[in-house]
Amino acid sequence: MPMNGSMVYLYDNDQTNYMVIFGEKVLISYRYYEVTHDWIDMAFLKEFYQSID
Q: pTM of the prediction?
Protein backbone atom coordinates (compact mmCIF):
# COMPACT_ATOMS: atom_id res chain seq x y z
CA MET A 1 0.00 0.00 0.00
CA PRO A 2 1.37 3.47 -0.86
CA MET A 3 2.27 5.74 2.01
CA ASN A 4 0.69 8.83 0.43
CA GLY A 5 -2.37 9.73 -1.61
CA SER A 6 -4.83 12.50 -2.38
CA MET A 7 -7.31 13.14 0.42
CA VAL A 8 -10.76 14.65 -0.03
CA TYR A 9 -13.08 15.60 2.84
CA LEU A 10 -16.84 15.37 2.32
CA TYR A 11 -19.07 17.41 4.63
CA ASP A 12 -22.81 16.89 5.00
CA ASN A 13 -24.66 18.66 7.82
CA ASP A 14 -23.17 17.20 11.03
CA GLN A 15 -21.28 14.37 9.33
CA THR A 16 -17.76 14.39 7.90
CA ASN A 17 -16.38 11.65 5.65
CA TYR A 18 -13.24 11.37 3.59
CA MET A 19 -11.72 9.66 0.59
CA VAL A 20 -8.04 8.81 0.23
CA ILE A 21 -7.14 7.91 -3.34
CA PHE A 22 -4.24 5.53 -4.03
CA GLY A 23 -4.68 5.11 -7.79
CA GLU A 24 -6.53 1.82 -8.10
CA LYS A 25 -7.60 1.69 -4.44
CA VAL A 26 -9.73 4.16 -2.51
CA LEU A 27 -10.24 4.42 1.24
CA ILE A 28 -13.67 5.89 1.97
CA SER A 29 -14.54 6.38 5.63
CA TYR A 30 -12.51 3.42 6.95
CA ARG A 31 -13.34 1.00 4.09
CA TYR A 32 -11.14 0.10 1.12
CA TYR A 33 -12.59 -0.17 -2.37
CA GLU A 34 -10.98 -1.39 -5.57
CA VAL A 35 -11.36 0.94 -8.57
CA THR A 36 -12.22 -1.01 -11.71
CA HIS A 37 -12.38 0.07 -15.35
CA ASP A 38 -10.71 3.45 -14.64
CA TRP A 39 -8.40 5.49 -12.38
CA ILE A 40 -9.24 8.30 -10.01
CA ASP A 41 -6.76 11.05 -10.76
CA MET A 42 -6.49 14.78 -10.09
CA ALA A 43 -8.45 15.65 -13.25
CA PHE A 44 -11.36 13.49 -12.06
CA LEU A 45 -11.21 15.01 -8.56
CA LYS A 46 -11.24 18.54 -9.98
CA GLU A 47 -14.27 17.74 -12.15
CA PHE A 48 -16.01 16.04 -9.21
CA TYR A 49 -15.34 19.04 -6.93
CA GLN A 50 -16.65 21.51 -9.51
CA SER A 51 -19.81 19.45 -9.99
CA ILE A 52 -20.73 19.57 -6.29
CA ASP A 53 -19.67 23.18 -5.67
A: 0.60
